[in-house]
Design goal:
With about 375 residues, the protein is mainly α. About 70% of the residues lie in helices and about 0% in strands. The termini are close together.
Length: about 375
């Protein structure tokens, strides 16, 4: 897997956010559209691990502070804007008795621990309650931000252990052990009624999804030797499996944690095969409108849930009881808000992040010892 830009992964983001928004708006019949979050997690594991390993290969070190600053500039400004908007809207339209609860939810979201708060409350993310929090969707961002905090330390530790060993083997074994442990914990917790909310909301039981994406990076050179035709088949099958799981799964499926292997492995298949040139899923995912939605996907995700929750709260109905045309309009409004947020906030701060000075070069000996992680492409 080269460092070249993967336009197909932008398209995969578009598919993921479309499934999540359609699921929350109860449109298109995707009763399992929540699998879009699982797609995002696998993508994050793949992309972040690739960034970390390539930095280590280039410089022989990991600048964890610079990594945290880049992630913060990339994610926090748009999230802060949405949280301020939610606070103002909550003050204006919600009854007084709900202000304190919403305020605590917002504080948890600011601290990136919304998943802890909703797990502690035993919140049913999949329940169509009228009084769902306007920042409930920040649980998934909390999981991701906790991953950004912990994962660089794990990768650094594994690479430090492997300086005199086969680094590929050490990384693969270390990440694989973490993935298996996390998956077992997820399945076990999901099978216990009292632990299901913790299994759904927490990083330890979600970490295996990130780890699957990370392992693709580690074995990338071998996967890159798969024939182009077979990789196109993998990508097509992966997209079909993601969409099928979104249609076939429903609100009871998540109680069986093992079922989440379907969208996770399907996403891995798309990552492995989606860059194969020619007619296939990769070509569809690289289609300009798909890439545009993928580019805006983070901001769209931030805005779509409050734009659905507040109208339902004002009318005193569940989101699914809103007229279908109104739900469609609210989804379109979330796209418009996402575009504006991307252009005016997200892209501005991302550009400032790109101007961070590069880390200093390492001593020649360290650079030579770290450059042999993967063989050079042929």
């Amino acid at each position: 897997m080269s460092e070249s830009f993967r336009g197909d992964l932008e398209g995969l983001r578009a598919l993921a956010v479309t499934l999540v928004v359609a699921y929350h708006a109860q449109l298109l019949g995707v009763a399992g559209g929540y699998v879009g979050v699982d797609v995002f997690y696998v993508l994050s594991g793949f992309l972040i691990t690739g960034l970390l390993i390539r930095e280590f290969q280039r410089s022989g070190r990991l600048d964890l502070v610079a990594f945290a600053v880049r992630r913060g500039r990339r994610l926090l400004p748009a999230a802060a804007l949405v949280l301020v908007a939610v606070a103002v809207a909550g003050y204006l339209v919600l009854p007084f008795v709900r202000w304190a609860s919403l305020g605590r939810d917002i504080i948890a979201a600011v601290l990136s621990v919304a998943n802890f708060r909703f797990a502690e409350q035993s919140t049913d993310y999949l329940a169509p309650a009228v009084e769902q929090s306007a920042v409930l969707h920040f649980w998934s961002l909390g999981v991701e931000e906790q991953f950004y905090l912990i994962w660089p330390l794990i990768i650094f530790g594994l690479m430090a252990m492997a300086r005199r060993r086969n680094m590929t083997t050490v990384l693969l074994v270390g990440i694989g052990v973490l993935a298996v442990a996390s998956l077992v914990a997820s399945v076990a917790a999901a099978a216990t009624a009292t632990s299901q909310s913790w299994a759904f909301f927490m990083l330890p039981t979600r970490a295996w999804e990130f780890a699957v994406g990370a392992m693709i990076v580690v074995v990338g050179p071998e996967l890159g030797r798969i024939p182009s035709g077979l990789r196109r088949v993998l990508a097509i099958g992966g997209v079909v499996a993601i969409v099928a799981s979104a249609v076939v799964f429903d609100d009871s499926t998540t109680a069986r944690g093992i079922a989440m292997l379907v969208p996770v492995l399907a996403t891995a298949a798309v990552i492995v095969g989606g860059d194969a040139m020619g007619i296939g899923a990769g070509a569809v995912l690289r289609w300009a409108p798909m890439r545009a939605i993928g580019r805006w996907s983070y901001s769209i995700y931030l805005w779509h849930w409050p734009l659905l929750v507040f109208p339902a709260a004002v009318l005193g109905v569940q989101i699914g009881e809103l007229p279908a045309p109104l739900r469609v309009q609210l989804c379109l409004a979330s796209i418009a808000a996402g575009i504006l947020s991307y252009v005016c906030v997200e892209r501005v701060f991302r550009a400032s992040s790109a101007r961070l000075p590069p880390p200093p070069p390492p001593p020649p000996r360290l650079r030579a010892s770290s450059s042999s992680l993967f063989p050079a492409p042929r």
